[in-house]
Amino acid sequence: MPGELLDNHGRGDASWSLPSIHPEGRKFGLIALGISLIFLLLLDWDLIGWPLLALSAGVFAFFRDPERVVPQSEGAIVSPADGLVTLIAEVEPPEELQIDDGSGIAGLPAGPVTRVSIFMSVFDVHINRAPIGGVVRRLVYLPGRFLNADLDKASEENERQHIMIERADGVRIGFTQIAGLVARRIVPFVKVGDTLGVGQRVGLIRFGSRVDVYLPAGTDSKVLLGQRVIAGETVLAEIGTRKLIEGIAQ
What GO terms fall under cellular component here (predicted)? Predict the structure, then answer.
């Protein structure tokens, strides 16, 4: 059942269940379903009706919102998105997460950090989750272009939304939701001042996109380029842990 504590000693009760559909997507699925039924039942245009019916099923699947078992390790930074790790690079955090915004709360410190970029295709779950638990300190939306989200420059040119969360011990993590070629809307579920648990839902990006995570200084990625990750479950890094990890594609 949702919220039940599970562990790696077999304690708890887990079972498969059909993922729920997030309310944000139900209206789109119902619209597509209604149009398909008009073509099938009223107009008897099977050639159009059946593909539209398949499309409506795809829309519902896109907005699926499965439960996740979130690691509760003190130093764990979990993935905020489902998808493929397409970029791992040493970069400066976004200026919007560094500069003094007048709130009196410090942003991310200057200096290179590891950025892990996760690309979400239209087949991935698009509900994004908090990589750590803490208070939302910044939420900065920036309009922009709709370049292919796989491109490195998408981090600076595409429509995007920066989020910074601060833990009780002062550790701050920034991550960015980035729109892509198809994605045209970033939908936030949280606001500045909200207190979140690790893995809590924070928003979604409609129809294919990317999320960048800026790890704290002195912290390396525990995932590899080309690895698939799961929002709220895959541990991207352990705070303060540095170690080279290599893998072989096979």
Answer: plasma membrane
209 is catalytic: yes
Q: What is the pTM of this model?
A: 0.85
Residues recorded for the chain:
250
Q: How far is CA 155 from the centre of its chain?
A: 14
Residue 144 and residue 154 in contact, taking contact as beta carbons nearer than 8 Å:
no
Q: Which residue among the candidates 36, 56, 79, 209 is catalytic per the annotation? A: 209
Mean pLDDT of 87-107: 92
* Predicted confidence (pLDDT) at residue 25 exceeds the cutoff of 70: yes
